Amino acid sequence: MRFSSKPTLLVFLILFTSWLHAQDDLLGLVGEDEPKKEYVKAAFKSSRVINAHSMEFINPGTMDFRILHRFGNIDQGLKNFFGLDQASMRMGFDFGLRPNLMVGVGRSTYKKEVDGFIKYAPLRQSKGPGSFPVTVALVAGMTVDGLPWSDPTRENYFTSRLAYYFSAIVGRKFSDAFTLQITPTVVHKNLVQLQTDVNDIMGVGVGGRLKLNKRMALTWDYTQVFNGLTDGYQNPLSLGLDIESGGHVFQLHISNSAGMNERAFITETTGQWGKGEVRMGFNLSRMFQLKKKKS
Predict the structure, then answer these.
(1) What are the respective helix, strand and coil percentages of the chain, to the nearest 5?
(2) How confident is the model at residue 83, as a pLDDT?
(3) What are the distances in angstroms from CA 67 to CA 79, 94, 109, 228?
(4) Which of 4, 146, 190, 205 has its CA 20 to 30 A from that of 159?
(5) Which of 173, 172, 149 is nearest to 161 (CA)?
């Protein structure tokens, strides 16, 4: 009796191919089990705490349209309806370029200032292989005073309108509910009011977030200024309540500062919390996707 080798060879090929597929599946499972580096997200729900920059970045290809609105002092009583008859605001446009890089511009009614900034994080908090415990972000910004010259008869220079600030943010999201950051900052003014005033003002900010539930969180923002504050100026302190709703974040807050950029709120805050010289306000952030996400 003679047997053909063709069926035997066919069976062998089928079994061998099945074995190769099984090996590929096993290797795929092994690859999935390997730990991967993951960056920590949602430390804050916005790229700002209240006044100051936060350790958070907006996504690449996204524009954040921000309206910061602040009323007058509460201690003015009924004559100004507890400050609601007065208002100052800043309107800004922030753009995400990379996961750790963003830029922004804005315009404030306070001193009619235009400001711009760039923020970059060389180190980001992460988990897994090569993880890092904190986020380190660097911010550089410039402001331009838009008020008319106080003395137009003398020779005035455009550079006198300029001020700069440089910040280093070191922050950590300790849990889903709690985030804390510190922000050493230097503000440089090209022109100061008196010869005895300093051009470089230094301070350290502290900001944080405490999550209350899925849509609400408490935030705070304080800067201790070490030099350059003359009589009448105070350290800025703001307390806020973040409310998430759909594609935007709405924040109610109380602050002793009228200005809403670093030069303004760090160097020119006049309100005293102990005397009720605080202002109610709100920040509104609305995200727009300018570039399609890569699939």
Answers:
(1) 20, 45, 40
(2) 75
(3) 26, 11, 12, 29
(4) 205
(5) 149
For the segment 108-165, what is each residue's pLDDT rounded down to a tens digit? 999 999 999 999 999 999 998 888 999 999 999 999 999 998 888 888 899 999 999 9
What's the distance, Cα to Cα, between the start and end of the chain in Å? Answer: 61
* Closest CA relative to residue 124, chosen from 116, 113, 108, 136: 136
Distances from the Cα of 78 to the Cαs of 32, 72, 84, 171, 218, in angstroms?
Answer: 65, 12, 10, 41, 29
Rounded CA-CA distance 245/68 in Å is 17
Q: Which amino acid is at 74?
A: I
Listed in sequence order, the residues at least 6 apart from 262 whose beta carbon sits closer than 8 Å to its beta carbon are 52, 141, 143, 165, 167, 185, 187
What are the pLDDT digits (tens) for 210-240? 999 988 999 999 999 999 887 889 999 999 9
Of the candidates 57, 39, 61, the one whose C-alpha atom is nearest the C-alpha of residue 48 is: 57
**Residue tagged 């079994």 (tokens):** 15
Contacts for 161 with CB less than 8 Å, ≥ 6 apart? 144, 145, 146, 190, 191
Can you spell out the DSSP letters for 102-113? EEEEEEESGGG-
